Amino acid sequence: MSNRRLIRPNLADVKDRFATKPKRKAPPPESTSAEAFYYVKQMNAQTPMVVVLNDGERLEGVIEWYDRACIKLNREGGPNLLLMKHAVRYMHKRDGNGDEQD
User: Fold this and answer.
1) DSSP letter for each residue of 16-45
2) Full-prediction pTM beyond 0.85?
């Protein structure tokens, strides 16, 4: 019989080779396009909207167009307005019988 020698790899080398790094969860997307989808849907249907500003003032009208920073609101019986989005607290559809939803 010959003199056999057991060869063992270094444990640190094996750990490095087979170690799996935990995968980091991807950050959420910057934009989900939900806002754009909502505006386009309301513009196409010409839905009467109520826009409540940060100071509590309520404006009624139809959204004509929008961009990243503002919304153009067409109103009956008043001038059309260009509203900055940062001044809008919230908006909702106007109720069918003229009453406002809250």
Assistant:
1) HHH--PPPPPPPPPS--SHHHHHHHHHHHH
2) no
